[in-house]
Amino acid sequence: MQKTFAMIKPDAVSAGYHHNILQELELGGFAIVSKARVQLTRARAAEFYAEHKGKHFYEKLVDFMSSGPVIALVLAKEEAITGWRTLMGPTNSVVAKEQKPDSLRGKYGTDGTYNACHGADSPASAAREIKFFFPRLILD
Ligand code: ATP
Ligand code: MG
């Protein structure tokens, strides 16, 4: 079974949508391997999204991701990485609302930055991100 790293972002947690998202992901067949509520510092958020350093949205993204608690998740399912990104929908929630209104970002996000959730985009990213949040977790 493949594992992926997922996160419910501060906008969704502060709105109370994490309850809905957790329910939907379990209905979608994802098993929750690990779950933690975490407050990222600005430095930790900057490190997590280091691949985007220098992009026009980076500072706003780092501010957003350190603005309140997130829920960090390790999820397991066959093809979990692509499956979770499909459940989330397009990155920009405005696009998601138009094209995939039933997706998590369509339902619970707001715009290009405040988009409710995150998912690792490759096996290498999943491994890095799981280690970032759950350094003691033993991955088979
Ligand atoms: P994530 O990595 O959060 O799962 P993603 O892989 O779909 O999202 P990335 O390109 O990795 O998208 O962007 C990381 C995050 O940066 C996005 O989820 C969003 O919050 C923000 N972001 C990306 N592109 C933009 C943009 N053009 N304008 C504003 N914010 C953006
Ligand atoms: Mg990404």
UniProtKB/TrEMBL annotation:
The entry sums up its family as follows: Belongs to the NDK family.
Q: Where does the Nucleoside diphosphate kinase-like domain start and stop, copy by copy? A: 1-140
Please list the residues that make up the active site.
H118 (pros-phosphohistidine intermediate)
Q: What is this protein called?
A: 50S ribosomal protein L3
What is the annotated localization of this protein? Answer: Cell projection, Cilium
Coiled-coil ranges (or none): none
Full protein: residues contained:
1 to 140 of 296
Q: Where does ATP bind?
A: K9, F57, R85, T91, R105, N115
Q: Which domain of life is it from?
A: Eukaryota
